[in-house]
Specification:
This is Lipase 1. By secondary structure, this protein is mainly α. The chain contains eight helices and two strands, in the order ααααβαβααα. A two-stranded parallel sheet has the order 1-2.
Length: 157
């Protein structure tokens, strides 16, 4: 658990809600199957975002190819915002985010969180997440929420 907290999330007690992290660590990796972890590892090794590889023969049956084809993320038409940490994120580098941005067809925001130590864990547990991230995210969602939806949610008179 110490490895996960310190290496994967660069755990910094002074910057995170410690109770939340401790609770999460008692459940980790609940909710994630072996296959999910295996697929993540395969994607890292392969350098592409693709379905789980089951081996040549089963891949042929499932995907029609011996290697699973990459997900066609360029076809995603939904307006997409990418928020990322600068240089302290073991799980997602600035270069990874740049590659993702270039593959997606409708990136409406590409936002580097303005804190050099911000990382994956801080998206959930960072004490400064509201100031550094959530406020901007909420404003973006509001900008893309149609008037009728805002009215239905009683956000407008």
């Amino acid at each position: 658990l110490r490895f996960i907290a310190t290496k994967c999330f660069h755990y910094k007690p002074e910057f995170v809600f410690q109770n939340a992290v401790l609770k999460m660590m008692t459940k980790f990796p609940a909710g994630a199957s072996f296959d999910v972890m295996h697929q993540m590892n395969q994607n890292i090794d392969r350098g592409e975002f693709a379905p789980l590889s089951y081996g040549r023969s089963k891949n042929l049956k499932i995907y029609g190819t011996v290697i699973p084809p990459p997900y066609p993320i360029g076809k995603i038409a939904t307006p997409t915002a990418i928020y990322y940490g600068c240089c302290n994120d073991f799980l997602s580098s600035a270069q990874d985010n740049e590659i993702l941005k270039n593959k997606l067809s409708n990136v409406i925001k590409f936002y580097k969180v303005p804190y050099v130590k911000f990382n994956h864990g801080d998206f959930l547990w960072g004490k400064d997440a509201y100031r550094l991230l959530y406020r901007d995210t909420i404003e973006l969602i509001e900008d893309y929420t149609p008037y009728e939806s805002k009215k239905a949610m009683k956000l407008l008179p």
